[in-house]
Batch of 2 targets.
Target 1
Amino acid sequence: MLKDDLGRLQSDLMAAISGAGDMAALEVVRVRALGKKGEVTGLMKTLGNLGPDERKTAGQALNTLKDALAAAIEARKASLAEADLEARLATERVDVSLPARPDEIGRIHPISQTIEEMVAIFGEMGFTVAEGPDIEDDFHNFTALNIPPDHPARQEHDTFYLPEDAAGSRPVLRTHTSPVQIRTMQAVKPPIRIIVPGRTFRADSDATHSPMFHQVEGLVIDKTTHMGHLKGTLIEFCRAYFDIDDLPVRFRTSYFPFTEPSAELDIGCSRAGGKLTIGAGGDWLEILGCGMVHPRVLENCGIDPDVYQGFAFGMGIERAAMLKYGIPDLRTFYDSDLRWLRHYGFLPFELPNLVRGL
Ligand code: DAH
């Protein structure tokens, strides 16, 4: 084995390595040189035929060659991978600075927008958002809320019942967001300050009722919470939501099984000329139900009514959106009509914010 032969073999293989245009070609060269039947491997096998001195020099020379080839193959592999990545980055390039096409921007649905606005207002007051399941059991939707089995409120709720479960009871589609009051009071210790926006269901359908609609519930529980807090919170909410500083507000006595005393909140409006306008106008419009949480409801959740008390409220989100944005028909909310959405929807980058205005 001549030194010259090795030198030639080395320069041949090195040229083949640097000439390999992709990973597959490089692999062919590697097998040709260092594979089981490769040229260098073949030479290694001939070492046994040599005398001891010769074998030593030739062995060293072959090992040096083998290492040099292996290093060159690794280096070529790395540069091919890098070139590959560069090529992909070049073809998959996205120009993030391109302007958006305004006529193709999606719109935020008025329901989502209204929820965001309510979350912004109550969030500023220190409320957090809680959620619960759409499918409820009788206990959370009714019984724990002090609505016993024979209570007329059960009929008024036009409940959708689901088939009996294994335990023999019938789950319901929640008829209001109030069961999340129960779930929250069972799960966390007071003080509690939550709002609960979410879907609700009643078997009722006409221009002002939909079998699926949305409510937002509110619940505050603490040791010294009183009716003054209820009034202050809700008056502040109405004025912020409708963005009318002197919006007239009145509390009218009402009845709910889960609150005592209970009230409904009316806001001022005008119906002059058959047109409804929110604001000081001599007329009134009901907007939400509220009250001090009934001691029995607290007890049902394991909260001592001699230590804790609080208030709750519930309001319809569609109705609040219709009043604020002049949307005349409830059913259009769920038609998925793009023209309607373009007209009544909101731009996605204009998130409601109290400082900038809602
Ligand atoms: N759950 C009531 C409904 O669906 C609304 C409501 C009224 C909720 C008074 C409350 C409340 O939390 O205090 O009609």
Target 2
Amino acid sequence: MLAVAVLAAGKGTRMKSALPKVLQPLAGATLVERVLTSANRLKPERRILIVGHQAERVEEQLSGVAGLEFVLQQPQNGTGHAVQQLIPVLSSFDGELLVLNGDVPLLRPETIEALVKEHRDSGADVTLLTARLADPTGYGRVIANNKGRVSGIVEHRDCTEEQRQNNLTNAGIYCFNWSALANVLPNLSADNDQAELYLTDTVAMLPLAMHLEVADPDEVNGINNRSQLAQCEAVLQQRLRLHWMNEGVSFVDPESCTLSENCSFGRDVVIEPQTHLRGSCRIGDECRLGPGSLLTNAKLGQGVTVVHSVINDATVEDDVAIGPFAHLRPSAEIGKGCRIGNFVEVKKSQIGAGSKVNHLSYIGDAQLGTNVNVGAGTITANYDGVRKHLTLIGSNSKTGANSVLVAPVQVGCDVTIGAGSTISKDVGDGALAIARARQFNKEGWVMRSRS
Ligand code: UD1
Ligand code: MG
């Protein structure tokens, strides 16, 4: 039987943030979500999150995680104190307790599995994950012999100068025999620089403590400040890009692009410099994204090009060209073969296949048929100051440059709208609609006014 407890009660003082540390985002997921999911493959019997600082906010963020138990630690008197809160919760539990620090987000599931396996094989009371770090500053130092047996952990701030030379560090990931741990937990004392109860002190109290050293020290990066957050982001981004390169995605300048964990790509996608994908994007085969584009929750079919544009919660079908400098906003649905050009904004609108909105337009709350040509500067005036209204434009219609369609308004199929028209009445199929002041020329006026 296995229980997993994630320590997520701390404030994260060193982050200097209004957000609790474990809710800081990394490549589209919070630190605590990453830590929780890293243990999913073990299928633990119980999953417990220890919350404290801004507990409600943390619980709300994770309310969707099925079967997750929340245990409150109040006040937050150290990692040992946090685990003491489990004594009543796990009173009838008999098995291993896997403790994961909520601020160590790069752990691979395989590594946690290896830790639990090693623990079961050796019969130790605790097995902890360690790493040899080039710069161990800030981490607890693990005192171990060459057979992997651990005699204690000393926090960086409590170390002597000599102990600081030891670069075997504690990752904050432990597999305990719960009953053995529960026996020693009440004996912790706050006799240290921070005057807190340290979980790390239990290691010296248990009869047999062992450690497992990770091969890739990046995995155990703990996040205590913004610089470590940025380092972890860089590691994750590199992992994501490598993963997608192996799946057939090209990056022209990989380091300048960022992805979120929930993006997926078809084959032969090319990502140009300075392009960023966030949320859950689905990108079809042979799309070309960027340079200079930001896509959030975008669904793109095949062969779509996006240049210097922003797409947010929108769907684009095959063979569409977007940009430069276009903005697709929530619920924009762009049909096959459309062209959305320079300085065009589309919101909550369906644009039928083969339609073109090429220059300087705002299309909001509109439904366009197929092969519509929206002239330069056409605007749907969808908002009357109180409510939003719909504009309908039938297939094969053309709007002249600088037309304003005052919604609610319905324009039929095969309509032509004269340039500069303000259309506020419906237009039937096949009609020409012109709504602008008639032009008249005063012959000779200039010469007369000069004399
Ligand atoms: C801890 C370890 C250190 C290890 C490092 C790895 C201790 C005493 N030290 O140090 O040996 O090298 O992690 O990253 O454990 N938390 C609570 N309640 C509290 C205090 C903290 O739930 O009262 C949670 C925090 O939210 C955080 C985790 O425990 O997720 C670790 O706390 P943190 O203060 O970051 O410990 P470190 O100083 O990093
Ligand atoms: Mg930490």
